[in-house]
Write a structure and sequence with these properties.
Number of domains: 2
Radius of gyration: 19 Å
Helix content: 40-55%
Mean pLDDT: 92
Number of strands: 11
CATH superfamily of the largest domain: NAD(P)-binding Rossmann-like Domain
Largest sheet: 6 strands, parallel
Number of helices: 11
Low-confidence stretches: 1-14, 16-25
Order of helices and strands: HEHEHEHEHEHEHEEHHHEEEH
Shape: globular
Strand order of the largest sheet: 3-2-1-4-5-6
CATH architecture of the largest domain: 3-Layer(aba) Sandwich
Length: 340
């Protein structure tokens, strides 16, 4: 069971993170965004550019990146921005990077599941992972590209193929936590910036497991309301896809969540102790070889995996249901790389 004290520091979100590091402990950190011209990549890059935690921002995509970089470079914040476009500039975009955030890929459309994105996004992530392994093997790799349940195993297998260490590869599931915090706060009349709900498992459908019993501050719901809340958190991505009526998927909220994850990683690299985020990583916590749990970040990536904590009977049932789904997604990713 992990301590409530060690949970992710969500209070005041970006404002607090920026305040904490506006004058002290700011290291020279280079962050690369792969897929920087896309619906997630542009707002994510804006948030990173605005943070004093980032002093070099490298933007890569297959189109439009010089324009995005030029636009961002006019903002009067410390980070220096460089844009790279096309396969010929991929290697240069990654050299010297300490944190790489990967939102590259095609977005979901109405009627699509994250798994429907597999064939296109699997190839994109595999190619980017190979470039990372060859050009910045010590960097922390933060994968947003869906389906995360498969793309993280893909990146890890690519790293193994080229002889790089895959222990610094993380699946970004932070949007599930952000959503859970907001939905719980709304139901209970709380400040959403002061709520923290750990979300474990994976990042699709029934593999998304919000641990309402471990929320801070402590909350409780009748069984029927708890079931409805859990299902809303699990299906929140589809809620956005439907609301956008074919115009895209969750981009702004995902950019917020991706930036939060990157900032937490940089804080840990800068030596801050006790930085915790849930992340989808290779794990022996359950029968699934990849599983999201609260992770204590450190200068080398994973300092400690805090595990599942004490689960309610309802949550234990959710974990059991998620394992089979996760195993299938993991195998699909590993098989993809084996056939490359």
């Amino acid at each position: 069971m992990f301590s409530r004290v060690a949970r992710p520091q969500n209070a005041n979100a970006f404002g607090q993170l920026v305040k904490n590091f506006s004058t002290t402990n700011v290291a020279n950190r280079k962050v690369a965004v792969m897929g920087a011209s896309g619906g997630i990549g542009q707002p994510l890059s804006l948030l990173l550019k605005n943070s004093p935690l980032v002093t070099q921002l490298s933007l890569y995509d297959i189109v439009h990146t010089p324009g995005v970089a030029a636009d961002l470079s006019h903002i009067n914040s410390a980070a220096r921005v460089h844009g790279y476009v096309g396969p010929d500039q991929l290697a240069d975009s990654l050299k010297g990077s300490e944190v790489v955030v990967i939102p590259a890929g095609v977005p979901r459309k109405p009627g699509m599941t994250r798994d429907d994105l597999f064939n296109t996004n699997a190839s994109i992530v595999a190619n980017l992972a190979k470039a990372c392994a060859e050009n910045c093997p010590e960097a922390m790799i933060c994968i947003i590209s869906n389906p995360v349940n498969s793309t993280v195993p893909i990146a890890s297998e690519v790293y193994k193929k080229v002889g790089a260490d895959p222990s610094r590869i993380f699946g970004v599931t932070t949007l599930d936590i952000v959503r859970a915090n907001e939905f719980v706060a709304d139901l209970k009349g709380l400040d959403p910036a002061a709520v923290n709900v750990p979300v474990i498992g994976g990042h699709a459908g029934i593999t998304i497991i919000p641990l309402i019993s471990q929320a801070t501050p402590a909350v409780s719901f009748p069984d029927d309301q708890l079931k409805a809340l859990t299902e809303r958190i699990q299906d929140a991505g589809t809620e956005v896809v439907k609301a956008k009526a074919g115009a895209g998927s969750a981009t702004l909220s995902m950019a917020f969540a991706g930036a939060r994850f990157a900032f937490s990683m940089i804080r840990a690299l800068n030596g801050e102790a006790g930085v915790v985020e849930c992340a989808y990583v290779r794990s022996d916590i359950t029968e699934a070889t990849y599983f999201s749990t609260p992770i204590v970040f450190g200068p080398s990536g994973i300092s400690k995996n805090l595990g599942l904590g004490k689960l309610s009977a309802f949550e234990a049932g959710l974990v059991e249901a998620a394992i089979k789904e996760l195993k299938g997604s993991i195998k699909k990713g590993e098989d993809f790389v084996a056939k490359m």
